[in-house]
Amino acid sequence: MTSNQFDFTRDVLDKSRDIPVLVDFWAEWCAPCRMLAPVLDRIAGQFAGRVLLVKVNTEVYPDIATRFGVRGIPDVRLFIDGTVADQFTGVLPEEQIASWLKRALPSRYAREVQLASELAAEGNTERAAERLEEVLLHEADNIEALAMMSRLRLMSDPAEAASLSERLEGEPRYADFADAVRTLSVMLQREIDTLPEDPVRDAYIRSIEYLRSGAFSDALEGFIGVIRENRYYDDDGARKACVAIFRFLGEEHEVTRKHRRVFDRALY
Question: Among the entry's GO cellular component annotations, what is one (predicted)?
Fold first, then answer.
């Protein structure tokens, strides 16, 4: 684009309210920029209709580069709704850039996922699951849908929940959650008859039963009691269960806040 044609506010900021805009800050003298350019062209083609690629020559538009703090090039930024949603600097492998963009772009099914979340909050878990299944049918790697479905299925089908959580592998935002789902899935499927004899065995079994019924607070209270008596029973199972419940519910959940300090004290 020439200076007579290009207006950053119009062609990037305003345009990004209609479609995400991928901006490549580059310069002719920059060899890495020349390497990256055809890669971005191919990726933009792969995501045609979902993203618009705009290239900004920092030699021609130094004021724009300064405005956005561009210090090294190539500098690639994704603008959504008038702001930078994500970015990277330097030359990355094509596959890595495509994966980055796929994660950064808003899903076509974001509204459906939001509706599922609202249904789940209202207690209508079956209708929520139906919507999520439809989303995953069309967008199998929708991270938010996978995480929510894993949450919804944990109690009714822990094996499926664990399988869904494995598809969150490599997603930093969901690393703790996915690990929690896998841990709780194992606990929910634990064969009671195989548990070793110990004075804490009955209390441990009761805690598992509380967990299976979704009574997280009672389960935590029971597991913490087991930790006080014999922390390493069932391969440190009570501690692992507590940590998993905290991560599954979230640090701000009232049940987590109620039991977290008591749990911490029980360890020492």
Answer: cytosol
